[in-house]
Amino acid sequence: MTKTRFLIKNVCYHIFIRGNQKQNVFQTKQDFEFYLLQLKRYKSKYSFLLYGYCLMPNHIHLIGEPVYPKKLSKFMQCLHRSYTAYFNNKYNKVGHLWQGRFKTKIIEKDQYLIHCIAYVEQNPVRANLVNSPEEYGFSSYLARNLNGPLDFKLLNKLSI
Q1: E strand or H helix that includes residue 104
Q2: Which residue range(s) make up the domain with 42?
Q3: Does 2 fall in a domain?
Q4: What domain count does the chain have?
């Protein structure tokens, strides 16, 4: 039986999930771009304020705040169902793409939030995919650093 999530209003969450059996969930640039389009679609539909993200080949990190916490699970369900359907159709696969339920950790809205976003954006460097975060096109690093200091409203107005 699935445990009920306890979600709080006015709280930021670090959300993460990886591919089933640690498999890559993104094979091509087109896959990353499709996921980002779906993220844009569903963050708007479910009122999710996106502050930072990083899409790695076999897992994802999202940092944000659900305006309506009870809708967080529906947001993630729709986002991942649409991407799974795309992926399975494109690669002639069936079954689960993601390993279990997504996980969440509460993040306080202070300096720790900024450090958390920066940590997530450093993932491609730690994984030796790139030498610096600005070289990686599938994280919020470039968008977040366009205007200097973190502007929460900036990420919600971006093209993703």
Answers
A1: strand 103-107
A2: 12-157
A3: no
A4: 1
- Contacting residues for 45 by C-beta, under 8 A, at least 6 apart: 75, 78
Cβ atoms 35, 145 nearer than 8 A: no
What is the rounded distance in angstroms from the CA atom of residue 8 to the CA atom of residue 93? 37
36 in a domain, yes or no?
yes
Q: DSSP labels for 46-80?
A: TTEEEEEEEE-SSEEEEEEEESSGGGHHHHHHHHH
pTM of the model: 0.86
Q: Is residue 78 part of a domain?
A: yes
Residue 71, both tokens: 């809708």
44 near 36, Cβ under 8 Å?
no
Chain segment 113-139, per-residue pLDDT in tens: 889 999 999 999 999 999 999 899 899
Using the 8-state DSSP alphabet, how is residue 19 labeled?
Answer: B
- Model pLDDT for residues 47-87, shown as the tens digit of each residue: 999 999 999 999 999 999 999 989 999 999 999 999 999 99
Within a domain: 117? yes
Beta bridge partners of 64: 13, 50
* CATH (domain of 138): 3.30.70.1290
